[in-house]
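Feature request, filed as a ticket because there's no other form

It would be nice if the structure record came with a short human-readable summary line next to the tokens. Right now we just get the raw output. Example of a typical job, pasted below so the devs can see what we mean:
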Amino acid sequence: MNETRHCAGRRAVVHGLAWTAPAVAFAAAAPAMAISPACLRSVTVDWSTARYTRTSATADTAGGAANPLVLHQSPRSDSDKRDTRTNANKTVTTFTFSRPVSGLAFTITDIDSKTADFVDAVGIQSATVFTATRANTTTAGVSGTGTLTDPLRAAGRNTDVQESESRGNATIRFTGDVTSFNLHYWNQAATASTTIDGDQRIFLSAFQLTYSICP
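Raw output as currently delivered:
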């Protein structure tokens, strides 16, 4: 959904996740042997309560199921907008964990578009294989597989999705251990207008993950 009441320059931002609980705060290497089930803890990283480190002063914050983590960008003027996939025209957000986590899953919401204004595009860059499950695969929903070459994007050029709707959602699930991944977010609309601002945003749900408390 397009909103204009918050304005932030298009930029690269970094979010580094870290917990202060003693069992997790240490950046211990994962043991080469199999981890005992007694060592594993499955948790929900709720943005309203999670302790995480913002490693960039421009990183946005929000929280809770109704107000998940926000990724928001807007060009200085709509004439500055480009649809190329170079990093200069993207927000690249890096998520880093202090030790490997498994079963990482979260939902990207509000992937949509508006005529001559914006077309949300989201790609995951990771050494770990992941899947992207779209809530709606019709022309009213989302297309793509979530890679940089085939990003998750609004299926149409004027597919405005309200924040309360699920058809702009896609759930990301990593199939192995994750220590870091990048989320690329950009605008695939090339046309510009002096009457619009090119403002766009997406939201990230709470993270589901499992980690080991054993050294």
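Something like this underneath would help us a lot:
The two ends are 44 Å apart (CA to CA).
The helical segments are 22-25.
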